[in-house]
Amino acid sequence: MYQIGQYIMYGSIGVCRVKDIADGAAIGLEDGRYYVLDPLYESGTIYTPADAPKVFMRPVITRDEAEALIDSIPSLEAEPDHTRNLQELRAHYKAATESHDCTHLLALTKSIRAKRRQQQRHGRKLGQVDEKFMKQAETCLFGEFAVALGMDIAEVPDYIDQRIASGPIS
User: Fold this and answer.
1) Contact 105/3 with Cβ under 8 angstroms?
2) d(Cα 27, Cα 81) in Å, to the nearest integer?
3) DSSP per-residue letters across 71-120
4) Which of 7, 70, 73, 79 is the most exposed place for a label (fewest CB within 10 A)?
5) Residue 39, Cα to own-chain centre: how many angstroms?
6) What's the CA gap between 146 and 39, in Å, rounded?
7) pLDDT given for residue 167 in this prediction
């Protein structure tokens, strides 16, 4: 059970703060307990069952976990996916994003960035499917890293670049 004030990852929405745990009848929903969630990087309020969640939820990673993940980026194996079948490409990217696993999301963004560099060298642009899934993965990752590292989401890319350039900070 999550606690009021705790930050969690909620499906593809990303980081949310548990604002309240309410009785369904009190908020006009079915019986049972509900998390009342405030998304950090989107507007609105989410009401989701606390006892039988229908959407993936997990606690936000810790600062140490975020730093270890960032430090692992240079050694991540991430080959660009060059399949021409858009359905296969979408399925591959969707599996990575729906895993909600930071390592899979990092590998996905690293592989798509490598694909972008290859495309640019040939005077071409990255495809819409690649762009869409890279943005989705980075939004979730950067949002989670921002909370874990106690910084603004806009600062995360520079922090990652600096940390990788200087090597692991002990």
Assistant:
1) no
2) 46
3) HHGGG---PPP--S-HHHHHHHHHHHHHTT-HHHHHHHHHHHHHHHHHHH
4) 79
5) 13
6) 14
7) 59
The half-sphere exposure of 55 on its side-chain side, counting CA atoms within 13 A, is: 15
- Contact assessment for residue 139 and residue 32, using Cβ atoms and an 8 Å cutoff: no
State pLDDT tens for residues 135-157.
Answer: 999 999 999 999 999 999 999 99
Question: In this model, does residue 170 exceed pLDDT 60?
Answer: no
Nearest-angstrom CA–CA distance, 103 and 84: 25
Residue 169: per-residue pLDDT: 44
Burial class (CB in 10 A: 0-12, 13-18, 19+), 121: exposed
pLDDT digits (tens, 9 = 90+) for 90-108: 998 999 899 999 999 999 9
- Identity of residue 79: E
